[in-house]
Amino acid sequence: MDKIIAFIEKRIAPVANGLAKNRYIRAIQNTFMTLIPFFTVGSLALIVISPPVDYKTMGAGFGRTFFQGWQALADWGTPIFGAVNQFSMGIMGLWAAIGISYFLSKQYKMDSFLPTFLGTACWFITSAFSVKGKFDTSHFDSTGLFAAILVAILSVEFYRFLSEKHVGRIDIPGAGVPPAILDAFANLVPTGIVLLCAGVLGRVVVAIFGVTLPDVMSVIMKPVVNIANTLGGIFVLGTIVMLFWWFGIHDSVITSPLDVILYAGLDANMAAHIAGTASTALPSILTPAFWWTFMAIGGSGATFGVAVLCLFSKSKQIKAVGKIGIVPAFFNINEPIIFGLPMMYNPIMFIPFVFVMPINGLLTYAAMATGLIGHSWAYGGWNMFGPIGALLSNMEVGSMLFCIALIVLDTLLYLPFFKAYEAQKLAEEATAEEGGEAAKA
Fold first, then answer.
1. Measured distance CA(244)–CA(143) in Å, rounded
2. How many CA atoms lie within 13 A of 51 on its CB side?
3. Positive or negative CA dihedral for 401, 405, 406, 407?
4. What share of the chain is helix, strand, coil (3-state, %, to 5)?
5. Alpha-helix runs per DSSP H in 210-303
6. Which of 62, 206, 264, 311 is the Cys-Cys partner for 142 at CB 3.0 to 4.6 Å?
7. Residues 126 and 165 occupy one common structural domain
8. pLDDT means per 10 residues in the chain (441 residues)?
């Protein structure tokens, strides 16, 4: 174990820390964190217009009346809630282009909003036109995500290079000229060059491959998406995330880039659900709800059960951590447990902290792959309590019960390790009390 820890600290931890500081990963992370309200509200809007039960198949009683009312609400609200869903989740590619351009330019301390407009315009140029050159919105959704990331980064970086090198800079002499006008003229030529290059790139891709840039990026990234959407891929990703966390490296190092795949899967499932596909036949298993609702119950490491165990601990220190951590745990916030217990650099808790969450992933994948529960087509948000989030993810009671079963299992898996750590803390507290009594005497 000591050799493994030493190897990770020497070889892997520096790489992970480098990724955490990478400006592109941070731009992607900030973009998807900002868009969480859009994705949550968009998902809930779809739930409102998607009654899980056809009231016509039910007998008389409260259930039939309830779902008949729900269907009436769905029929009335489809134009409203459908629009909310379409222009939040349904144009994910566009929002990503705007967000990444903005947050990347902010890291370069560009005060102007021009780089954001520029990155978005370049994405339109390369992704919003068909092979025949006609305006096309088919890649405004998650199918345009990978192109949005690439184009936003390239456009901002190219613009920054041209601006710093003063390529074609136009200076207006004289005092009293508004700064916005000075900036606009100074960067007129760089802006034109970047936009022109985006147009050339889009047409060159069509000429070589016969498809648009988003289609090419989807093909390039398909192997990565397919691997991530496998049993082994989910287990490896979950293990790496928690291994990093045990060393104090935040899970966002892995989950931020993974968001692109998670939300693309959610968007694909949402579109298929709207088209009438059964939840067990939706195209993607790996979605944000899969990761944050079924795998990370209570936060990364699936520590909700730990928070409950802490609350009833005989150790004063651990019980105090439980009192502080139990309420946040309901909302998937587990920093009080991770730093207060602690879980990080705790050799006793290493095995469950690293492997319980991946085990949840394996069991959930198996349940979805075999049709025991449906795939998720909605997302209540990362801070939604697991069982409730599971219910909202596909409007199936079975998913909620499955999530509850996972919480029980997680608690049992943590229990022997927790008891060993509790015994250690009790011994330390007893020694401290004896020392205090001896000092008084």
1. 30
2. 21
3. positive
4. 75, 0, 25
5. 213-228, 231-246, 252-274, 288-289
6. 264
7. yes
8. 61 65 86 88 89 75 83 92 91 94 94 92 95 91 91 96 84 64 79 95 94 92 88 92 82 78 92 92 94 94 95 92 91 89 88 95 96 94 90 94 97 95 90 68 57
Q: How many angstroms separate the CA atoms of 419 and 352, rounded?
A: 12
Taking the C-alpha atoms of residue 372 and residue 398, their distance in angstroms, rounded to an integer, is 8
Does 278 lie in the same domain as 214? no
Asked whether residue 431 falls in the same domain as residue 385, the answer is yes
241 shares its domain with 267: yes
* Domain with 107 in it: 91-228
Residue 437 corresponds to which tokens in the numbers above? 């009594």
Q: What is the DSSP string of 60-121?
A: SSHHHHHHHHHHHHHHHHHHHHHHHHHTTTTTHHHHHHHHHHHHHHHHTT--SSHHHHHHHH
Please count the structural domains in the chain.
2
Q: Is position 57 within any domain?
A: no
Q: Which residue bears the tokens 């059964």? A: 278
Flag whether 108 is in a domain. Answer: yes
On whether the CB atoms of residues 156 and 107 are closer than 8 A, the answer is no
Tokens 């731009």, located at residue? 27
If asked whether residues 175 and 203 sit together in one domain, one would say yes
Helices (H), 275-371: 288-289, 304-311, 316-329, 335-340, 350-369
Nearest alpha-carbon partner for 253 in 66, 3, 1, 25: 25
291 in the same domain as 391 = yes
Verify cis geometry, omega within 30 degrees of 0, for the bond prior to 342: yes
In angstroms, the Cα distances linking 96 to 35, 217, 263, 427 are: 9, 15, 11, 53
| Position 44 in a domain | no
Asked whether residue 283 is assigned to any structural domain, the reply reads: yes
Task: Report the predicted TM-score, pTM, of the whole model to 2 decimal places.
Answer: 0.83
Q: What are the helix and strand counts (H, E) for the chain?
A: 20, 0
Last residue of a domain, one of 177, 197, 228: 228
Clarify whether residues 254 and 403 are in a common domain.
yes
CA distances from 299 to 152, 264, 417 (A): 31, 22, 18
What contacts 81, CB < 8 A, 6 or more positions away? 45, 46, 48, 49
